[in-house]
Amino acid sequence: MVPFGGWEMPLSYPGGTLGEHRACRGGAVVFDVSHLGTVRVTGPGARDALQRSLTNDLNKVKPGRAQYTHLLSDDGSVLDDIIIWWVAPETFDVMPNASNTDEVVKALRSGAGADLAVQDTTSARAVLAIQGPLAREKMKDVSPEAASVARFGVKEFTFDQYRCVAAGTGYTGEDGIECAVPAAAAGAFWQAVLNAGVTPAGLGARDTLRLEAGLPLHGQDIGEGVTPLNAGLGWVVAWEKGDFPGRSALVAQSEAGVTPLLHGLRTGGRRPIRSGTEVMLDSRKIGYVSSGNFSPTLECGIALAYLSNRIPVGDTVSLSVRGTEVEAEVVDLPFVTKS
């Protein structure tokens, strides 16, 4: 157990991080991700308030769907990356990262009118993420309703007479389901998932899985001083929908030329690459590693790195790994596609 974002979280279970990682790629695992926030936004003005506050466009989806989006500061930095679950026509569950819930609540309430309620419901529920190519098959024994939720769909279901919400979302690159369960039912739901043959997994495997999938981590790959354009996430910015915080800064950045840019790097050896490692080209520093590790699937070092130059895929750069210069190839993201 380790401290994480003000919570005590499991780093790994007795099977170990490598076993948990491989269980997700080849079967099904369950993560307790209750540290993620839930901010319930309700009322006739809910949709418009989210449109004004966040980067993506809710016109692209409808009730019963989920959407990835960003909350930006005025300079375009990513204050948080968020999943929105559109539960019902006037009900949204906004899912911020662990340490950012208060900031998201503040941002949404700042533009709230009488027709809008913003409530932090994090402490009232647990969120369990069942991930892997066999996740849906295993979940049929727990809840056929939850197991049938579409990819990026949102569906209410009942477990042991408790109303729950499932979303076809996750953070591993695999198929899967995230289930928000009332706190009173969380222990029983967790046990039912384990009884269905799902392997428990901790933060260690969650990090290696999301890195293989090329998914950014807030506070490490995105955050202060990093915009969606730096991170290669321009698709999450709906330019045409109108104004939102940070939009003018993104326009200026786009016109001036975006630098640095996020790249994927892969080494030939098994040594893990650590965040903060300098990236060199022709003996000149051109950037740094924001996230790096050993890839259990590829059995080599992989990293996300911000580089001042746009380096073509297939070219090589050099890294200093524990005092040894190591060549790394620039590769497309994700490093690993879903099983």
Which overall shape is indicated by the principal axes computed on the Cα atoms? Answer: globular
Number of domains: 2
CATH class division of the largest domain:
Alpha Beta
Report the major sheet. Answer: 6 strands, mixed
Quaternary state reads: single chain
Series of H and E elements: EEHEEHEEEHEEHHEEEHEHHEEEEEE
- Please count the helical segments: 8
Please characterize this protein's 3D structure.
By secondary structure, the chain is an alpha+beta fold. The protein has two domains: 2-212, Gyrase A, domain 2; 259-331, Elongation Factor Tu (Ef-tu), domain 3, CATH 2.40.30. It contains eight helices and 19 strands. The protein has helices at 17-26, 46-53, 101-110, 135-139, 144-147, 183-195, 203-212, 247-256, and strands at residues 2-4, 7-9, 29-32, 39-42, 66-72, 78-88, 91-95, 117-120, 125-131, 154-159, 162-167, 176-182, 199-201, 261-267, 278-281, 284-295, 300-307, 316-321, 324-331. The strands form four sheets. It has a six-stranded mixed sheet, sandwiched between helices. A hairpin with a 2-residue loop joins β18 and β19. α1 (17-26) crosses α7. The longest helix has 13 residues, at 183-195. The two termini are 29 Å apart.
Annotation keywords:
339 residues; alpha+beta; Gyrase A, domain 2; Elongation Factor Tu (Ef-tu), domain 3; six-stranded antiparallel beta barrel; 8 helices
How do the strands and helices of this protein lay out in sequence?
Layout: E1 2-4, E2 7-9, H1 17-26, E3 29-32, E4 39-42, H2 46-53, E5 66-72, E6 78-88, E7 91-95, H3 101-110, E8 117-120, E9 125-131, H4 135-139, H5 144-147, E10 154-159, E11 162-167, E12 176-182, H6 183-195, E13 199-201, H7 203-212, H8 247-256, E14 261-267, E15 278-281, E16 284-295, E17 300-307, E18 316-321, E19 324-331
Parallel strand pairs: 3-13
Antiparallel strand pairs: 1-2, 3-9, 4-7, 4-8, 5-6, 6-7, 9-12, 10-11, 11-12, 14-17, 14-19, 15-16, 15-18, 16-17, 18-19
Helix pairs in contact: 1-7
